[in-house]
Design brief:
heterodimer; A: about 425 residues; alpha+beta; Sulfite Oxidase, Chain A, domain 2; Immunoglobulin-like; 2 domains; five-stranded antiparallel β-sheet; B: mainly alpha; Cytochrome Bc1 Complex, Chain D, domain 2
Chain lengths: ~425, ~150
């Protein structure tokens, strides 16, 4: 058995489990310059004792998923969507978008102030917040600029990470903002709240109060541990389904008022210019979207035959009700399997078995959410909003599969 | 707790709520701008390397949704002048956020509004005058009309 050539089944399994690593080797991409060499391991791990226990686990040295950071303290880092399975994003790979870097905050000195149109202006420390009944929910976050690269003529050599890496899913734990609102006695007539961070941009957004009563969360937990500094340690706002920027990190202050505050993130930033000469403001909800994460650039399919197309779909308006996949450039569509759990305002993993006949084709995915919204084509989105619009790029993503098995992003071509 | 509110409650609303005492002119602002801002936003507010702060073009029709090449500025896009005070007070200059005094901020706001041809070079910005400044793009904004369902908006 030992020296037998790899059976097809073994090959398929190893490719699928390593999400294309085999294909990368074939393409000579797995050992890109500057990357550490493949770690050395004993030839037979059953013949030497293994490593001892440890206080903190680490990834296998063979696994090197990395964010792609663009810009410094003002930039974004993209989550490696093609390296992830299931729906949860490991916290250290969660996408980032900061306006003035990651602040260092002492949790012992942390305070959340709620004031303005309330009966009892109140300062909560971290222990106060943790004392309230808590909830945990899996929610996606997505930067409203995510996918911008695919709107204006994208290059074909872009990975799922480079195109749509500004979205991630975590299990968020915290206290519903509604609980705190009852505690401070929000006055009738309060229609907006200002959510303000403790970063060097003192980043602030105006949020309709209804969202707070609905499902807003004051989160201190992420995937079973404290929220990571890059995601808002010690406390952030989570507004399920709403654009990332409004989910203010390092939250230190909430002020209630009868009108929006009109911060700098409510100007040319985070508004959507439309073809009719207007700009849409307070466009919070992230419409339904999906992207195939395998097979996708830089994967090269080594062989025709059975492949499992896999990807994620999500909607800021509720559950994903269906994901259609086309393997013939959009002529025919068939429903993909939705992998449980299928949760509202959360990434949903979809899978679709495909028997590739080795010819050139284009594969696409199209999400449908429970409101009946269907992920639009690029043309539909441009007709609705204009070619100059900015933010909320949720149109269908295409991947061109070449004869040689190379999979290229098909954006505009 | 009133101490916390006083220390943190710095936001400025379109009606001027939150604006502190103080005042400044474009001439005063030009000098502060040269020292504290020009390195990042350019000598006249248009050269970069970071966000362009001045420029009214294109003056007509607000065609940003039709043309991705247009550069958005305070002058051609922002709906409220008070936002400038609020933002400079929070976040600028980038390397020393929260360091500007009210008189300096009013002066910088006057300077930037003058550079955008929105106020005269003699205008004095203070808690009374700033909320009265009408921004050219003010009426361009519409509320989000996306509601889910079949229609793509």
């Amino acid at each position: 058995m030992q020296d037998a050539p790899l059976s097809r089944r073994v090959l398929l399994t190893s490719v699928a489990s390593a999400l294309g690593v085999h294909a990368l080797h074939k393409a000579g991409l797995a050992q890109a310059p500057g990357q550490p060499r493949v770690p050395t391991v004993p030839p037979d791990p059953t013949k030497v004792p293994g490593a001892p226990l440890s206080e903190l686990g680490r990834r296998s040295p063979f696994e090197r998923p990395r964010r792609i950071a663009i810009g410094g303290a003002q930039g974004s880092s993209f989550a490696p969507l093609q390296d992830l399975c299931g729906i949860v994003t490991p916290a250290d790979l969660h996408f980032e978008r900061h306006h003035a870097g990651v602040p260092a905050i002492d949790p012992h000195r942390y305070k959340l102030l709620i004031h303005g149109m309330v009966e009892r202006p109140t300062v909560f420390d971290l222990a106060d917040l943790r004392r309230f009944p808590s909830v945990s929910h899996l929610y996606f976050l997505e930067c409203s600029g995510n996918g911008g690269v695919s709107y204006g003529g994208a290059r074909p050599d872009l990975s799922p990470q480079a195109i749509d890496g500004l979205t991630s899913t975590s299990e968020w734990t915290g206290v519903p903002l509604a609980t705190l609102f009852r505690e401070v006695g929000v006055k009738t007539g309060a229609k907006w709240l200002l959510a303000e961070g403790e970063d060097a941009a003192v980043m602030a957004r105006s949020i309709p109060v209804d969202k707070a009563w609905d499902d807003a969360l004051i989160a201190y937990g992420q995937n079973g541990e404290a929220v990571r500094p890059e995601q808002g340690y010690p406390v952030r706002l989570v507004l399920p389904g709403w654009e990332g920027n409004a989910n203010v990190k390092w939250l230190r202050r909430i002020e209630l008022a009868d009108k929006p505050f009109m911060t700098r993130e409510e100007t040319s930033k985070y508004t959507d210019p439309l073809a009719d000469g207007t700009a849409r403001m307070f466009s919070f909800a992230m419409d339904a979207k999906s992207i195939i994460t395998f097979p996708a650039y830089p994967v090269i399919l080594p062989d025709r035959g059975w492949w499992e197309i896999s990807g994620i779909a999500w909607s800021g308006r509720g559950r994903i009700s269906r994901v259609d996949v086309s393997t013939d450039a959009g002529r025919r569509w068939a429903p993909a399997d939705l992998q449980a759990p299928v949760l509202p305002k959360c990434h949903t993993r979809f899978r679709y078995l495909w028997n590739w006949d080795g010819t050139e084709t284009t594969i696409l995915s199209r999400a449908v959410d429970e409101t009946g919204y269907v992920q639009p084509t690029l043309d539909q989105l441009r007709k609705a909003r204009g070619v100059g619009t900015y933010y909320h790029f949720n149109h269908i993503r295409e991947w061109r599969v070449r004869k040689d098995g190379a999979v290229m992003f098909g954006g505009e071509g | 707790m009133t101490a916390e509110i006083r220390a943190w409650d710095t936001d400025v609303m379109p009606d001027g709520t939150g604006l502190p005492p103080g005042s400044g002119t474009a001439a005063q602002g030009a000098e502060i701008y040269r020292r504290k801002c020009a390195a990042c936003h350019g000598k006249t507010g248009t050269e970069g390397p970071f966000d362009r702060l001045a420029g009214r073009e294109p003056r007509q029709a607000f065609p940003f949704g039709r043309d991705p090449r247009l550069v958005k500025t305070v002058g051609n896009y922002w709906p409220y002048a008070t936002t400038l005070y609020d933002y400079l007070n929070r976040a600028m200059p980038l390397t020393a956020p929260g360091s500007l005094k009210p008189d300096e901020i009013y002066a910088l706001v006057a300077f930037l509004l003058w550079r955008n041809e929105i106020v005269a070079d003699t205008a004095v910005m203070d808690a009374q005058t700033l909320p009265r400044v009408f921004m050219p793009a003010r009426d361009r904004f519409v509320l989000d009309n996306r509601r889910g369902g079949a229609e793509v908006r």
